[in-house]
């Protein structure tokens, strides 16, 4: 089995009829071995014979798809200069298309001496125990053509997009209509029962929490915990093998593709939550699993004052050095692979500010942003930034380039504050409802740059927002120290679930959830719904359920029967959103008439029925806001340049505790109004009111009226 010379490109393992070519970029290595494992885990080590452009390569005849392998990289152990070569550690191929097996909590997975899992050891002293029995193995994947059946991306325009953030395992694990053997898998998410639910709800785009191959942190495993969310990437090309029902020797690749194909056939886009800002190797005391043992100085930001340590802009111990050409190349190759080979429709970038760091500062004109912007493949897909990291200057909301959209935490905080009754007034709320022009208009971006969300995987669910004042993360095993304390939540007087007989509190909390859903789904921008909020999912007050692979995180589908009105409301609102372009504007409002003497494109009303005054805009005690959307004042045009005309609507958001009588705007604004939705009193829907008539807003409620001319 003497390796042939092979070729330096492509990187990774490439199978042909005669041999499999292995290529690994390791610029400072002295020797590289590819290690092949049989079914009994017996290992065969072969030295890669050639080196071209810092890439070690060789072709091994007879190696077939499904073969497990890894690399051992020889070189100096000198942490003071940033070099941590250790051939005792089996390393995952950065370009592996599939990975098999889980990480075991054993001291041998660390490149440095760690006497036991209970003793940290010294990260500067090399450990020579073999890690192969305890780490995942890369897998050679067959490159046979996949039957995509004329698959085409749905290409939903941003202004029409409705995101649904979910977890492959959590969404399917308890679904009663998905066969048990498929629950928790890609095939489960592709099952007709799952797809029918998603399409019936009315969302357009599924945003999946991490599906790149990840591992749990060894310390978590040692204490009996694990990483459920998956923000701990090991391999950026490989779909996570634990989500495969078909097997982990390459079968996960085809199963993932089949899932994407099924979702596309239903008209649903697939966006991946990707974690390129850090890896599973953690800080200087973390395990050696791949990048650290291949080219530590290149792959990570090291501390210039002590190169044995890492600069941590991510809160995980390390920061991937995307500014390095080879590392940037890996990230771009990975992104293009998921679009071109796996057919995904876009990406949500975890801690995206860290990717824009050049040396230390965030640079929106740096290499990562520049390359993304000019790439003919990636500039055509959806790009979503989590626009911050934990380093200095990392908060970048409103600062990303034109192709990007952003998770808008200003929207989240404003909507939460309004409905919990914080003394914040309504001025900031108006900006959020109308697309956040204060954040995005100054550099000529569009309203859909704002991803409007109230809840996400990280934090309380919507039901928990109205049920808990404090986090309850005791089950995480960190003495409730983990997770944010800034929840902007309100328990309405009782912490947790109320007594069964307390119908009043239950009804109030349910109405508050309806209020937040209504606000989000009728705001200008792109709404993002957290999976399960449409049926009242609870994590029992846990706002950081990253390690809860159990009923805390899995969707309880029986809730859809307990709270059917929530699902019905979401479906109604999304149907209204699809039908009415006035609530999904592609341009910012100007607050002036489109035609002279006409109505403003957007107008804001106080309870008096008059437009808001300057004093009212700055009244911190004001809890009620009326938003008038003029369907005759839409500033964007149709595909042939034709005007877009729509109904007009008046939306009241009343966060005060008491009922409030309001006067509707006068005859200039409407001849009459028809109630479309009332989160407090469904019985008065379809009721009509004359212009300037008085009506009562129930305490803490939304009222949506259609304008009748």
TrEMBL record:
Residue ranges, annotated region (Disordered): 473-502
Gene3D superfamilies, alphabetized: Glycosidases, Golgi alpha-mannosidase II, Immunoglobulins
GO molecular function: 1,4-alpha-glucan branching enzyme activity; amylo-alpha-1,6-glucosidase activity
Alphabetical UniProt keywords: Glycosidase, Hydrolase
Cross-referenced InterPro entries: GH, GH13_cat_dom, GlgX_Isoamylase_N_E_set, Glyco_hydro_13_N, Glyco_hydro_b, Glycogen_debranch_GlgX, Ig-like_fold, Ig_E-set
Domain Glycosyl hydrolase family 13 catalytic: 165-577
GO terms, biological process: glycogen biosynthetic process; glycogen catabolic process
Pfam families: Alpha-amylase, CBM_48
Biased composition (Basic and acidic residues): 473-489
SUPFAM superfamilies for the chain: (Trans)glycosidases, E set domains, Glycosyl hydrolase domain
Family per record: Belongs to the glycosyl hydrolase 13 family.
Matches recorded under PANTHER family: GLYCOGEN DEBRANCHING ENZYME
Name of the protein: Glycogen debranching enzyme GlgX
Species this protein is from: Jiangella anatolica
Annotated gene: glgX
């Amino acid at each position: 089995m003497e390796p042939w010379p092979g070729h330096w490109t492509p990187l990774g393992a490439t199978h042909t009829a005669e041999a499999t070519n292995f290529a690994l970029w390791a610029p400072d290595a002295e020797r590289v071995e590819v290690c092949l494992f049989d079914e009994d885990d017996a290992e065969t080590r072969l030295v890669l014979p050639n080196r071209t452009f810092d890439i070690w390569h060789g072709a091994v005849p007879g190696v077939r798809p499904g073969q497990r392998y890894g690399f051992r990289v020889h070189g100096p152990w000198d942490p003071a200069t940033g070099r941590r070569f250790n051939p005792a550690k089996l390393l995952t191929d950065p370009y592996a298309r599939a990975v098999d097996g889980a990480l075991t909590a054993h001291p041998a997975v660390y490149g440095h001496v760690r006497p036991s899992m209970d003793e940290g050891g010294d990260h500067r002293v090399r450990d020579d125990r073999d890690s192969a029995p305890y780490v995942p193995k890369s897998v050679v994947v067959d490159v046979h053509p996949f039957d995509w059946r004329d698959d085409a991306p749905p290409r939903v325009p941003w202004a029409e997009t409705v995101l649904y953030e979910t977890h492959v395992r959590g969404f399917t694990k308890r679904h009663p209509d998905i066969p048990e053997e498929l629950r928790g898998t890609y095939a489960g998410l592709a099952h007709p029962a799952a797809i029918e639910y998603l399409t019936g709800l009315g969302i357009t785009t599924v945003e999946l929490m991490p599906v790149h191959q990840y591992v749990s942190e060894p310390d978590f495993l040692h204490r009996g915990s694990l990483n459920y969310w998956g923000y701990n990437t090991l391999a950026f090309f490989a779909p996570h093998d634990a989500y495969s029902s078909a097997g982990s020797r390459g079968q996960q690749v085809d199963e993932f593709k089949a899932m994407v194909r099924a979702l596309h056939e239903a008209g649903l886009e697939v966006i991946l939550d990707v974690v390129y800002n850090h890896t599973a190797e953690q800080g200087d005391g973390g395990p050696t699993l791949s990048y650290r043992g291949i080219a530590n100085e290149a792959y990570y930001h090291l501390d210039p004052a002590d190169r044995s340590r890492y600069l941590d802009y991510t809160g995980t111990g390390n920061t991937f050095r995307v500014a390095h050409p080879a590392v940037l190349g890996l990230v771009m190759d990975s992104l293009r692979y998921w679009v071109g080979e796996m057919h995904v429709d876009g990406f949500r970038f975890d801690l995206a500010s860290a990717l824009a760091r050049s040396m230390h500062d965030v640079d929106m004109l740096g290499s990562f942003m520049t390359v993304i912007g000019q790439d003919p493949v990636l500039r055509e897909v959806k790009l979503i930034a989590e626009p911050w990291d934990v380093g200095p200057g990392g908060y970048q909301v409103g600062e990303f380039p034109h192709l990007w959209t952003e998770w808008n935490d200003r929207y989240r905080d404003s909507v939460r504050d309004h409905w919990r009754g914080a003394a914040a007034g309504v001025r900031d709320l108006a900006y959020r409802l109308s697309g956040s022009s204060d954040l995005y208009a100054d550099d000529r971006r569009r309203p859909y740059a704002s991803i409007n969300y109230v809840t996400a995987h990280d934090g309380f669910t919507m039901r928990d927002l109205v049920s808990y004042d404090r986090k309850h993360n005791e089950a995480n095993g960190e003495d409730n120290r983990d997770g944010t304390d800034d929840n902007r939540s309100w328990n309405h007087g009782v912490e947790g679930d109320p007594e069964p007989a307390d119908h009043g509190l239950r009804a109030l909390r349910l109405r508050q959830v309806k209020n937040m859903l209504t606000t989000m789904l009728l705001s200008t921008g792109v709404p993002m719904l957290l999976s399960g909020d449409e049926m009242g999912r609870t994590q029992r007050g846990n706002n950081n359920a990253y390690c809860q692979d159990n009923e805390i995180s899995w969707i309880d589908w029986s809730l859809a029967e307990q709270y059917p009105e929530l699902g019905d409301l979401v479906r109604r609102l999304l149907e209204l959103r699809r039908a009415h372009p006035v609530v999904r504007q592609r341009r910012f409002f100007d607050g002036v008439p489109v035609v002279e003497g006409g109505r403003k494109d957007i107008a804001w009303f106080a309870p008096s029925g008059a437009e808001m005054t300057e004093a009212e805009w700055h009244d911190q005690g004001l809890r009620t806001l009326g938003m008038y959307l003029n369907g005759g004042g839409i500033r964007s045009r149709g595909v042939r340049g034709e005007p877009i005309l729509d109904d007009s609507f008046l939306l009241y958001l009343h966060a005060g505790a008491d009922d409030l009588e309001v006067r509707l705007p006068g005859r200039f604004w409407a001849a009459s109004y028809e109630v479309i939705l009332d989160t407090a009193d469904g019985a008065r829907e379809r009721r009509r009111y004359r212009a300037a008539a008085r009506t009562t807003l129930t305490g803490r409620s939304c009222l949506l009226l259609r304008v009748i001319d």
